[in-house]
């Protein structure tokens, strides 16, 4: 793997060989704070949204017409048009840290890291349906495919909780290890990043037992399934790695050393993997075929990232 900091040169080479895609990359700089929109062909910033307090995560609304960006300290969500970057509206929301829509698109669930609460909203509006006081540092959210249950990592408690979205009650709480962060539902299991260790825990929600671990490096943080379903991509912030994991065997295929503290990941139509480098103030573009990595300076402590294909405009 080759890492280059000359992002402009790398993009020029991609363009020459026809591999470049004219996408927009949205990056949330959590301590600038700002949201920047970058042209992936040139690496140039084409839009900046400021006047924020602290932005961390974002999610595309069902239908793709709005991008929801959570300003946790500002206590609001920005609704942004993905193709233009225009702010359509702002809604007052209590300390939104991580947020996601249920698979059926009916509910918006928000984890409040600082206030120890999980809020369940009707996605239309949004309109608050229930506020649950859940414990110490609710961090990231996943769902069962049928939208019946939400799973939230409790970073301060070292556990995962299951919430029944019909009764809006906590059903169980299971230990997984210190400082759990990212979580996904994958083939009837929950895969959880254990930031205080070097692995992801494989949790069986039926038994609430950890059945295995996937070692990727210290500060195991978040995990995402590629759009083609052929690879799980996982980050370790402390050891600065991005790991390729087989989705069937859960074995690590390859480790990419990417200095700067890889955090969140987004996927481009050309197959590239984009990641925020939390400690370096940069974003990275990883070519899975070659393993080459190029980086681009953005703002301080970049966290959430999203790729909007220009062809979708």
As residue ranges, the low-confidence spans are 5-19
Give the fraction of residues assigned to helices: under 10%
The main sheet orders its strands as 1-28-27-26-25
Q: Radius of gyration over alpha carbons? A: 18 Å
Mean pLDDT: 93
Tell me the β content: over 45%
State the helix count.
1
Shape: globular
Class per helix and strand makeup: mainly beta
Pattern of helices and strands: EHEEEEEEEEEEEEEEEEEEEEEEEEEEEE
Can you summarize the main beta sheet? 5 strands, mixed
Tell how many strands the DSSP assignment holds: 29
Distance between the ends: 34 Å
Characteristic key phrases:
313 residues, mainly beta, 5-stranded mixed β-sheet, 4-stranded antiparallel β-sheet, 53% strand, globular
């Amino acid at each position: 793997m080759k890492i280059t900091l000359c992002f402009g040169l790398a993009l020029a080479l991609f363009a020459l060989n026809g591999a470049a895609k004219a996408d927009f990359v949205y990056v949330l700089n959590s301590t600038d704070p700002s949201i920047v929109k970058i042209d992936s062909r040139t690496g140039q910033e084409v839009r900046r949204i400021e006047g924020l307090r602290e932005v961390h995560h974002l999610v595309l609304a069902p239908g793709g017409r709005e991008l929801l960006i959570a300003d946790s300290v500002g206590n609001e969500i920005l609704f942004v048009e993905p193709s233009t970057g225009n702010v359509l509206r702002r809604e007052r929301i209590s300390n939104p840290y991580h947020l996601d829509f249920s698979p059926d698109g009916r509910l918006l669930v928000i984890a409040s890291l600082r206030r120890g609460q999980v809020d369940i909203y009707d996605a239309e509006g949004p309109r608050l349906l229930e506020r649950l006081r859940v414990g110490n540092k609710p961090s990231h959210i996943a769902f069962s495919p049928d939208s019946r249950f939400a799973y939230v990592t409790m970073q301060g408690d070292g556990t995962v909780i299951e919430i029944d979205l019909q009764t809006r009650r906590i059903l169980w709480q299971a230990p997984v290890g210190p400082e759990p962060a990212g979580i996904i539902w994958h083939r009837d299991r929950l895969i959880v990043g254990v930031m205080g260790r070097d692995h992801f825990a494989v949790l069986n929600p039926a038994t609430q037992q950890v059945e295995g671990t996937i070692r990727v490096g210290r500060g195991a943080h978040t995990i995402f399934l590629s759009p083609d379903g052929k690879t799980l991509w996982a980050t370790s912030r402390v050891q600065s790695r991005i790991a390729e994991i087989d989705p069937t065997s859960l074995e690590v295929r390859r480790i990419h050393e990417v200095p700067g503290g890889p955090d969140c990941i987004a996927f481009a139509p050309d197959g590239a993997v984009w990641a925020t480098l939390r400690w370096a103030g940069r974003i990275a573009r990883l070519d899975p075929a070659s393993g080459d990595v190029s980086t681009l300076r953005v703002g301080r402590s970049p966290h959430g990232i999203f790729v909007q294909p220009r062809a979708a405009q």
